[in-house]
């Protein structure tokens, strides 16, 4: 379980606190949506739980251990995968190469790496044919799928994504949500999605809304 204890954050001035006394829990096997107005601090919250920023107040625990104690780099490398809004893929490489390099970086060893990668990509609709195309030649939805596979295969048990449906049409967006749902429910991962998309909020197991510097549980 990932949890925040009395978490508070501001950038330069405490007077501009974005949120404070945040006590949230994220459990394995569930999909979470984080909602809030533009500029409220959702992405900032995501960078804190992704160990890209450090709390100004309070702490973040993963399986009851403080992230500082686990080590921020170690936490990011072994427990967490981020699906960035711009997908963050290497566009001059193929889909296959993008996934393959992520596997190498994370240090995960697979016996039959080639089959593992092509099967993983196939499971989200990236056919063998698309697999070997340069990412720049894939559609937004296809790139998003590759980015999700890249996040999934590293063995991370927490998957976070910022506006994962932001650049997609409604139909493709729904397919992405279904994919994240599957990752949470079938693979038992913690999935945390920052979004403006009310479809995601409806489909998620728990929705937290950041409003007036405080997170509210929305049912
Ligand atoms: N690195 C930074 N340094 C200083 N201020 C920042 C920094 N990053 C973001 N901010 C400010 O913090 C506030 C919250 O930004 P954040 O991106 O977390 O909001 P958000 O809720 O994700 O917004 P959106 O929905 O528009 O993406 C904004 O006022 C933003 O200008």
Descriptive report:
The structure is a single chain. With 219 residues, the chain is α/β, with parallel strands linked by helices. It folds into 2 domains: 1-79 and 159-219, Rossmann fold (3-Layer(aba) Sandwich), CATH 3.40.50.300; 86-156, no CATH class. The protein has 9 helices and 11 strands. It has helices at residues 42-49, 67-70, 72-78, 95-106, 113-123, 128-131, 140-153, 170-187, 198-203, and strands at residues 2-9, 19-22, 25-26, 31-36, 57-62, 65-66, 80-83, 158-162, 190-194, 206-211, 214-218. The strands form 2 sheets. It has a 6-stranded mixed sheet with strand order 7-8-9-4-10-11, sandwiched between helices. Strands 1, 2, 3, 5 and 6 form a 5-stranded antiparallel sheet that branches. A hairpin with a 2-residue loop joins β5 and β6 (65-66). α7 runs parallel beside α8 (170-187). It is globular, with a radius of gyration of 17 Å. 37% of the residues are buried. The model has no long low-confidence stretch (mean pLDDT 91). Adenosine-5'-triphosphate is lined by residues 11, 18, 36, 38-44.
Number of strands: 11
Attached small molecules:
adenosine-5'-triphosphate
Number of domains: 2
Q: Biggest β-sheet, characterized?
A: 6 strands, mixed
The residue fraction in helices comes out at 25-40%
- Sheet with most strands: strand arrangement: 7-8-9-4-10-11
Relevant CATH superfamily of the largest domain: P-loop containing nucleotide triphosphate hydrolases
- What is the overall shape? globular
**Unreliable residue stretches:** none
Q: In the CATH classification, which architecture of the largest domain applies?
A: 3-Layer(aba) Sandwich
**What's the CATH topology label of the largest domain?**
Rossmann fold
GO molecular function, one term: ATP hydrolysis activity
Subcellular location: Cell membrane
Catalytic activity: ATP + H2O = ADP + phosphate + H(+)
Function: Part of the ABC transporter FtsEX involved in cellular division. Has ATPase activity. Essential for cell division and viability.
């Amino acid at each position: 379980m990932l949890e925040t204890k009395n978490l508070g954050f501001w950038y330069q001035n405490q007077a501009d606190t974005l949120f404070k006394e945040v006590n949230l829990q994220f459990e394995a096997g569930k999909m979470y949506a984080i909602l809030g107005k533009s500029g409220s601090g959702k992405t900032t919250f995501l960078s804190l739980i992704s160990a890209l920023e450090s709390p100004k107040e309070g702490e973040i625990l993963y399986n009851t251990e403080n992230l500082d104690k686990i080590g921020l780099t170690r936490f990011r490398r072994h427990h967490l995968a981020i699906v960035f809004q711009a997908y963050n893929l290497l566009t001059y490489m193929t889909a296959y190469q993008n996934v393959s390099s992520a596997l190498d970086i994370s240090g995960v060893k697979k016996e039959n790496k080639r089959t593992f990668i092509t099967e993983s990509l196939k499971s989200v609709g990236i056919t063998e044919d698309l697999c070997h195309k340069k990412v720049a030649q894939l559609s937004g939805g296809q790139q998003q799928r590759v980015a999700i596979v890249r996040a999934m295969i590293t063995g991370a048990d927490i998957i976070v994504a910022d506006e994962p449906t932001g650049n997609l049409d409604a139909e493709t967006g729904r397919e992405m949500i279904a994919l994240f749902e599957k990752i949470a429910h079938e693979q038992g991962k913690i999935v945390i999605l920052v979004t403006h998309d009310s479809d995601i909020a409806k489909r998620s197991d728990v929705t937290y809304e950041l409003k007036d510097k405080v997170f509210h549980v929305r049912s």
